[in-house]
Amino acid sequence: MRINKSISIAVVPLIVCFLLACSLWLYASMREEYTAVVDIPLEIRLPAGRTLETEVATSIRAQVQGAGWQLVNHFLSASIRCVVYVPEKRLARGEEEQTNITISRQMLTQAIQSPVGIALQRIMADSLPLSVGSIVEKRVAVRPVLDIEMREGFILAESPSAVPDSIVIRGSRTMLRRMPSWNTSLVRLRDMYEGTRIQTTLDDTLSGLITIPQVPVNVSLTIQQMAEVQFDDIPVRLLGAPARHPFVVLPERVSVTLRGGVENIARLLPENVTAALDYLDVLASTTGTLRPRVVVPTEVQVISVSPQFLRCRKRLFLAQKRE
Length: 323
Known about the structure:
Largest sheet: 6 strands, mixed
Number of strands: 24
Number of domains: 3
Mean pLDDT: 85
Shape: elongated
Helix content: 10-25%
CATH class of the largest domain: Mainly Beta
Strand content: over 45%
Structural class: alpha+beta
Low-confidence stretches: 318-323
């Protein structure tokens, strides 16, 4: 028992000495000068009413020298930053103008903001290209992005509806011109068999270039049991044809099979279904065989058309009269 006690008592000073030695070594090491390659956060500051047309890197790589504790502090809190100010005089005037400028390595070096004791040795990038445009606003539709798997025998009876159905976004004129809608974040739903309403958010993929409102989006889904119906004797129309034209469509009527939600199918009438051929397509056809185009309400889909192809022939009495 005495031997065990003496050993346990001797271990404590040994541990204290070891920790003290490690602390002294760490203190001395952190005071030494080191050279390191670091990623420096990059910030572009533009004049009021201006924005970037394309995304730029969020950081630049540079080689710096400083005390060990200062470099560690940068890795923990990003104490070194690169803030680039773009003056108005370097940009083209006018709302329609887009300016492409280049920030040189020298300008990037001057834009580095670092604590006292850290010296910048060199920046890895030769230059930084920027494309700058004017900020405008535009109202766009909200487009729900969904990945839905239905339970067997059920169907999405109508297109998903979003509230709000449109938002005002801010960004460069060039980007907003080709952006008719804005997506929501992807929502995955499985084994769906009844209508529901879900809450999601707006996609922030281009948050660095386009400003969007931070609002929730409620998406409503109408789900019904699947049903099918067949309408026979749907007349085929010849769209765009003059009052007296030489063509006859054979057969003159088709059968159409439709699929949709049981409630939507129950409200459907033959008058809601149209089958047609375009007169210009008939004139351009070399075979006289064309596929009819069937138009139905958006909440149902066409499963089949019988027959699939129609024949267009000239009336015989008109041909004889011309002779």
